[in-house]
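Thread title: Can someone regenerate the structure for this chain?

I was given the following input by a collaborator and told the matching structure tokens would be attached. They weren't. Posting the sequence so someone can regenerate them.
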Amino acid sequence: MRITESMMSQQLLYNLNQIQEGIATSQNEMATGKLLNKPSDNPLAVSQVMADSTSISQAQSYLSNIQSGSTWMSSTSTVLQSMTSTLQSIRNIALQALNTPSQTANATTGLQQEVAQLINNVYQLTDTQQGNSYLFGGFASETQVSTYIAPSQLTTNATAASTTAPVVTTGGTVSIIGSLGSAQVTIPNNATLQQIQTAINGVQSQTGVTASLPAGGAGVQLVLQPQQPGTAFGMSGNQVTLTGGSALSVSSVQTNTPPAGYTGSIQYAVSSSTKEQVNVTADSVFNQTPPKATQGLANTLQSILNDIGNPSGLQQDLGNLSANISQMIQINTEVGARQNQMQTMQTQTNQFITNLKNQQGTLQNANMAQVLTQYNSDMTTFQAALQMGAKVLLPTLAQYLP
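Best answer:
Regenerated them for you:
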């Protein structure tokens, strides 16, 4: 087979073109620092890098959820610890009142006022927010929690067929405690519901508590309401005896209707197959039921406030409060366990992202020393090819190429 000048020229140009492509590739890799600059560079590697990018993006979304959930739970745990400390303070005051049953009326009222302030602190802690969301609000995270956890109405056992019928046999002093302060109200013998209402409302500017006589059922019953929702208020009327022989007291506690979703469990996705609860609801903290406690925390706090000066009732309240505190500690322990799980997931997710990025780097990042060496080699080969072509081939324009 005869090799013509044309064939040699074509082969030279082909080789020069191939070398130039290699040089251009090396220049591009040096400029970008990457081996993969277009899909055709390595289709399989490009596909793997794209898959890794998708996995990294998903993992970073989970990591964001983990960090947000960890912050939420950390704030919740801090609030629960503050609540527990406040409840211990309430317990100490109740013990003080129990150990000194013969205190003066003013001293008893002072203890009640102190307990009321501490209870208000507990309710204020339930209104702690994370951003614009109430920590303990469940799905109803935009509704102030204390407005439906704290009592909205206290119904007394003072009832009669009419507001003008006598309901008191032996009069005495009634302590009224509210958000504004406390006051002692004198109730005379043979007092009617209307007289009791008038006496209590006469000091409402000092207490922030109003009395009303809504009709219901077979008679009229005296009820108390706070002027400021979401605050503690109470009554202690052990010195007043009703016509039936019992002491004037609170017979039932009513709260506002909670919003829909207030018991909702907020769960964050922390992996493709795992969700973690990040919240604690006020309902789980305040409405504990047997066998965890004889009654919920909200009722216990109200009973303590009303029973200061009533040793027999206060003794039972202290037992309930101890059970409530133990349950709150248990709730906080569960939050801590979930925090530990979150931290483990965060560590694993960070390691997963690091591994994927390392794999991406191996596939697409250029070895600059190797690329520079290849570039220099290609340039040397290119120059040699030009010189060889100029000597072997007949004079052509190739001789004048740089």
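The chain has a mean pLDDT of 85.
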